[in-house]
Amino acid sequence: MPTQVELTTAGRDQRRWSLTANTLKASIEQARWIVLAFAIIGAILETWGAQIHQANPAFAQILGYAGAAVLGIAAVVRQARLGHERMQAWIMARAGSESLKREMYLFRAPAGPYASGNSCLTLLSRKDQILAKLRPYQKYRVEVEGELNVPGPLNTEEYLESRITGAKGQIKYFEDRAYRYARAQKLLSGAEFVLAMIAALLGAAITMTDKQAYGAWVAVITTISGAITSHMLAQRYEQLTISFRVTADRLESTKNHWNSMGETDLAQLVESCEAVLLEENQGWIAGADDTAVPTRVKASPPP
HSE (CB half, 13 Å, CA atoms) of 46? Predict the structure, then answer.
């Protein structure tokens, strides 16, 4: 039978890497906004300086240096906070957190590898395998403060409520995320269209007036770059929307099938639901890994 000592140990590790993943994600999102803002400010300063160069060359030179400095800072922020290692650390921290959570539910059932034999030793062994993959990212680890309340063995109703159908269950989680990402995809698609139109109008105005031929192209190039980035993000959000919706439907279908068959074996329900969650987890991690880094590095939880 599951014991509270092993559960608490695994729960603390799971919480630690969940906090790590959340912290890294927040840092990455903040850095992206900073880089975007600096890129826009730099483009404006450079373009403004080019436009007033003849009328006020001294001030134009100041604007030029300021724009170059801002763009340089954006490059530094991108390299320091959006580099390969931090992106990979976030992916692996999230993967490790979800893998540990899955092991805890299987352990509490008990189901899968914990259905027979010494479940405590099995949990410790599988937990160590997961943590071994996280060793390269220890410097990003966020420690858990205070006491941690980890529930003990669970029955069918408790599993469904806490993991699948409850207010904090996976079905609601995926449905909420699907809605949020669908809205984000719509906004990004609209932003891409607006940016593309602005780029076209700027290009046409420069061609027709033959003024500020060089400086204005900085803004044009930045606008085009922003349009391409928005398009790529929109595609990624669209993929996530589909993935989350399908996963929510599959979980609902798995639960309904289990009920319709009159099953009473909790282990079978847990294994089926956890298999769906594991597949989704591996899928988005692989997708994020491919889009985040130039060299493909597989990152998936242990079987």
Answer: 22
Q: What is the total count of domains within the chain?
A: 2
- pLDDT tens-digit map of 242-280: 677 768 877 887 888 788 777 677 888 888 888 888 877
Residues 192 and 96 in one domain: no
Query: Which residue segment(s) compose the domain that 177 sits in?
Result: 154-264
As a whole number, the mean pLDDT across the chain is: 79
Q: What is the pLDDT of residues 5-59, one digit of tens each?
A: 888 999 999 999 999 999 998 998 888 888 888 888 888 888 788 778 888 889 9
| Same-domain status, 159 and 133 | no
Q: Say what the pTM is.
A: 0.74
Domain contains 110? yes
Three-state DSSP string of the chain: CCCHHHHHHHHHHHHHHHHHHHHHHHHHHHHHHHHHHHHHHHHHHHHHHHHCCCCCHHHHHHHHHHHHHHHHHHHHHHHHHCCHHHHHHHHHHHHHHHHHHHHHHHHHCCCHHHCCCCHHHHHHHHHHHHHHHHHHHHHHCCCCCCCCCCCCCCCHHHHHHHHHHCCCCHHHHHHHHHHHHHHHHHHHHHHHHHHHHHHHHHHHHHHHHCCCCCHHHHHHHHHHHHHHHHHHHHHHHHHHHHHHHHHHHHHHHHHHHHHHCCCCCHHHHHHHHHHHHHHHHHHHHHHHHHHHCCCCCCCCCCC
Share of the chain above pLDDT 90, in %: 18
